Protein: Quinol monooxygenase
Amino acid sequence: MYALIGKLVTKAGQRDRLVAILSEAAREMEATSDCESYRVHVSLDEADTVFVYEVWRSEDAHAASLSLAEVKAYIDQAKPILERMERIAALELRS
Amino acid sequence: MYALIGKLVTKAGQRDRLVAILSEAAREMEATSDCESYRVHVSLDEADTVFVYEVWRSEDAHAASLSLAEVKAYIDQAKPILERMERIAALELRS
Structure:
């Protein structure tokens, strides 16, 4: 399975707003058969920083999710409060 | 809950040996009530690179696990084949 780790840094004070948006997205993603796990975290070391850990049936399944209307809606909600986004790693889950 | 993302780079050609050691550790960790998740991945972008995603009941629960004999045994197995280890993030799981 295909896993992704992403780091999202928000504008000052917007971290929990982003957590709320991504947590809603998480529930919806995990309801689909293609998404095995979508977990949202806050960093204990860096301010205004959220980490997402996602596991998908395949890389293609993840790519397909990005074209879903509801996913685009979440991205549009998040964009205005984001400072920057960084992909930490693209991974293959082994166990 | 307390989550950790770690990056382990092995000596050339030793990645799958490390995956085997960590996968065995994963089974044992997840069998304890303190460890909610212990996932082992290989990087799709970097050679000889393994990522571990762990979720523990608390930071203390994770710290306590490091003093268990079986965990020390896994660490001793892994050390000779490791080039370096890096903590990517210490996190609080939100959803």
